[in-house]
Amino acid sequence: MSIQPEDALILVVDDEGAIRYSVSKTLERVGYNVMTASSGEEALEMMEAHGFDVVLTDIRMPGISGVDLLARIKEHTSDIVVILMTGYASLGTAVESLRLGAHDYLIKPSSSEDIRESVRRGIERSVNLRRRRELLASIRSNVAELSTTPIAPVLDPDQVMGRDNDRDYDLAAAPIQPNTMELGNLTIFPGRYQISVDGTMIDLTPTEFDLLLYLAAHRGRVVPCSELVREVRGYTVDEREAREVIRPHVSNLRRKLKNVGQDPNILVNVRGIGYRLNEAVLE
């Protein structure tokens, strides 16, 4: 699967008009379709109407910063590739950005070659993310064999971004639909990024949901962090960096489970190797 420049849609976000113009022209010259936004707020509005492949955003902006925008994007979908740009290099910001799921971190002013190369690699990553969706669809089908009920189809990320928020739905009042699967006292709602524990609904981020589902599909073995990043997040890093990427997602997932009375040790960290699903907790 490959994407030609003319098939990709890029969003450039910066509060400085000159930079928006320069970066967009740099990309348009090699065939990319480019749109621009002058703020994080405007970018979020545009993302509700357009399916962007890559977002290049300045870090320091009034209102919603680039890092905040990155977090908001990844809260809804992990499929949009985000590249951060800054004139104020900071190791701490760079590390935090990568942990949140940024694809790259460019120092302004960046050369045209650097910008194009970063976007080119971002497009390659978007191809991997599409492969990831197909893989997860297959995983959900396999996990469904452990369940007594069928699986719901995988939602397109644009459908997720098109909603204001999953929390708009009164799920506590809604009856449980047949398109669910059971793991012990957990009920999983594929496509909705939600689970319930003994009837209590929990909203998960796409990464948390897919992480839990991938471990469920690979019950009985310890999954290396690098594999989790590759198959759940859609890109490749070494095992050391992968541990730093996966750890906060596991921590957040454990916290959400603990808050509703579920044993957080359902996710077991096997030191130096990776994570596994604790089937004893599900019995």
Structure description:
With 283 residues, the chain is an alpha/beta fold. It has helices spanning 17-28, 40-49, 66-76, 91-100, 112-144, 157-162, 206-217, 225-233, 239-259, 279-282; strands at residues 9-13, 33-37, 54-58, 81-86, 104-107, 181-183, 186-189, 194-197, 200-203, 223-224, 267-270, 274-277. The strands form three sheets. It has a five-stranded parallel beta sheet, sandwiched between helices. It has a four-stranded antiparallel beta sheet with strand order 6-7-8-9, with no helix packed on it. Helix 3 packs parallel to helix 4 (91-100). It is elongated. The termini are far apart. Mean pLDDT is 78; it is low at 148-178.
What is the CA–CA distance across the termini? 41 Å
Mean pLDDT: 78
The CATH homology group name of the largest domain? Winged helix-like DNA-binding domain superfamily/Winged helix DNA-binding domain
Uncertain runs = 148-178
Rg result: 19 Å
Main sheet overview:
5 strands, parallel
Topology-level CATH name of the largest domain = Arc Repressor Mutant, subunit A
DSSP helix fraction? 40-55%
Structural class: alpha/beta
Give me the count of strands. Answer: 12
- The gross shape turns out to be elongated
The succession of helices and strands, N to C, reads: EHEHEHEHEHHEEEEHEHHEEH
Spatial strand sequence of the major β-sheet: 2-1-3-4-5
Q: What's the architecture of the largest domain in CATH terms?
A: Orthogonal Bundle
Number of helical segments with 4 or more residues: 10
The first-level CATH class of the largest domain is given as Mainly Alpha
Number of spatially distinct domains: 2
Approximate strand percentage? 15-25%
